[in-house]
Amino acid sequence: MKAAILGLVGGRRKAALFTAISAADHPSGSGLTVASRLTDDPQVTVAVLEAGFNAEDLPEVFVPGLAGTGISFTTLNWRYATVPQTNLNGRTLTVNAGKALGGSTIINSMIFPRAGKAQYDAWGQLNNDSTWTWDSLLPFFKRSELFTQPTAFQTAQGVRFLPSVHGFAGRVKVGFPNFFFAQSALWRKAAESLGFPVSPDLADGDPHAVGVAPNSLDATNNTRCSAACAYYTPFAGRPNLVVITNATVSRILWDMSAANAKLTASGVEYITNDQTFTVNLSKEVILSAGTVGSPKVLELILQAAGVTPVMSLPTVGENFADHAHSWANAFTNITLTKDALLLNSAFAAEQQALWFQNRTGLYSANPRSLGIAAPSDVFTPTELKTLLEQAQVNLTRFAEEFSNGNPALAKGIAAQHKIALELYQQDKELPLEMNVEPGYSGPTPFNARPARNYTTINSVLYAPLARGRTHIVSADPLEPPAVDPAYWAHPLDVAAQVGGIKLARRMLVAPPLDSIYAGEFEPGADKASDSQIEEWLRGVVASDNHEVGSLAMLPQSLGGVVDTALMVYGTANVRVADASIIPFPVSAHLSSTVYMIGERAADIIRRGDT
Ligand SMILES: Cc1cc2nc3c(=O)[nH]c(=O)nc-3n(C[C@H](O)[C@H](O)[C@H](O)COP(=O)(O)OP(=O)(O)OC[C@H]3O[C@@H](n4cnc5c(N)ncnc54)[C@H](O)[C@@H]3O)c2cc1C
Fold first, then answer.
1. Among this protein's residues, is 417 annotated catalytic?
2. 302 phi and psi, to 5 degrees?
3. Ligand 1 center–CA 77 separation, angstroms
4. Is 546 annotated in the active site?
């Protein structure tokens, strides 16, 4: 989610020094969360190092409807390129990640639900630690939130919420938009007609249902609330919170003389305008550079190509996973869609003026009605039985293949798969997010598609079994790493994503959404069979920018990199707090989980847990 923070400054009683680097569909969420919470204590000084700049004042950041426009997907985006994806026709995909104070929360789509209780419980189970389960983590989710209750208008639009699962005194402003597209309600009803229950709240730990997702939004003025908005701007005047932007962390420095069996960080080196600077630490480093950025910094010092390793942690950068995005879209016979903004520039200008005058209209929010599908929504019982039997038979083979030759990680991935398959069996796994886009979403650029209005059902692979890796390719800290999400490397992932397109098609023609259906555009009538859909998907599947797992919180015997106090194994004072520690892909947009990690990290550090 956000950017890196580098704590630094010493000399005070409890000075905490770090490097937090973060990013986000969302400056780094967790990094700024930790820095903000720790500096509530005036005796603690934190330095935050961020490679990007403070972009809070840019309209493409604070106006929800401008997300993804202007420089938000160029200058404010690392745009990590994957290595050619073997299972996707050798294509090189882009994994987007925010490069600004606040990380990906600056450029993300602001959708703010949570994953399933069973998945957070599995996280704790893998770590033999009940403090990393839903019941124990819920207070930290709530601690991050400053929730605005829905208005009567929003409730009439279908918004539901349970006060008991939200926080009302935190820092991330969460709420609902004041504009809703007609497709949203029609789609929710269509999903209900296919058997999806209505969710009382998509953050309640049971997202197998449909509802209106909350947004990371200041509902009082309809502006984005990023990690910078939540955790930095209100506290920018603190003398003990030092934020250095345009600062790319190049390595952690170690005190090789420390009489400690564990490695002790003594400082952090960073580069600004081709010059190298050092921050000296008196306490610790917190790495929050994101799932690609954090392993890169660790590898630069641990085991990088051409760099003398100071310790051996062979699973740094391994166990990487990402959600994979796909779509089915149809022409629609209504005209008030997001497409209207592209088709009619005068209307778009009018709507933008409306937002700036009244904070309403089509640019006022990124509303998203969504639901998470269970296996029974995607597969017939026979299909599922066959797929699970095959996955079970091949469990060890895939775990070994994905572990890159590391025996401990092979055990760790096998343990993850075992839990996932059990959840599949119980119909509690959550393999796909289905959500409605009130306009075109898909692989075809504006100028290459019919100039019409569309309804899109996004279908996102949320519980992939494939695991890949991200590793540096050079000792140059400014070189991008080689990112390999290994999309579709497991047959169950392929089957689920194909099943998602079939489910999306059923939704597009289910009543009452069928009332606006004017024919399918993509995949298109010529992609009728499973194999035709699969072939089409191999050419178009994209990253959903929800990468996790590269510095996994797992026991070392299972190939983990950090322990349950977020400390990197073998170090005395280097912690990680970002999406890279999430041990396996959870079925949700990640920012709420990343803020939870930041809140939990601050709590652990304050208590002095090691
Ligand atoms: C386009 C997009 C849309 C998304 N949509 C949603 C959504 O709607 N809802 C949702 O919940 N999630 C969404 N996400 C995902 C979510 O925002 C991220 O998963 C989350 O923000 C990750 O947080 P993080 O702290 O792990 O990393 P990041 O937020 O990526 O933060 C890492 C930070 O570290 C900085 N950094 C990296 N390397 C260095 C270095 N060497 N030195 C200094 N700084 C460095 C980066 O610039 C960045 O600021 C989206 C992500 C993207 C990219």
1. no
2. -95, -50
3. 9
4. yes
184 with 162: CB under 8 angstroms?
no
- Could you tell me which of 291, 290, 298 has the C-alpha nearest to residue 103? 290
CA distance 115 to 587: 5
- Kindly state the tokens that stand for 260: 């400690």
| Sequence-separated contacts (24+) of 417-426 with Cβ below 8 Å | 417/391, 417/465, 419/122, 419/125, 419/126, 420/463, 420/465, 420/584, 421/388, 421/391, 421/392, 421/395, 423/118, 423/119, 423/122, 424/375, 424/384, 424/388, 424/391, 424/492, 425/388
Tell me the C-alpha distance between 320 and 563, whole Å: 17
Q: What is the pTM of this model?
A: 0.95
Q: Which amino acids are annotated as binding site, given as ranges?
A: 249
Task: Please count the other Cβ atoms lying within 10 Å of the Cβ belonging to residue 61.
Answer: 27
Tokens describing residue 480: 């991008």
What residue type is 344 in one-letter code?
N
Pocket flag, ligand 1, residue 51 (CB < 6 Å): yes
In short, whether 297's Cβ falls inside 6 Å of ligand 1 is: yes
Q: Per-residue pLDDT tens for 2-44?
A: 323 333 222 233 333 343 333 222 335 689 999 999 999 999 9
CB atoms within 10 A of CB 556: 15
Write down all domains in the chain, each with its CATH number in brackets: 1-112+227-323+544-610 (3.50.50.60)
Ligand 1 atom closest to Cα of residue 547: 19
Instruction: Give the ligand 1 atom nearest the CA of 78.
Output: 47
| Atom 35 (ligand 1) nearest CA | 3
Q: Return the closest-CA partner of residue 242 out of 389, 383, 38, 517.
A: 38
Q: So what's the ipTM on this one?
A: 0.99
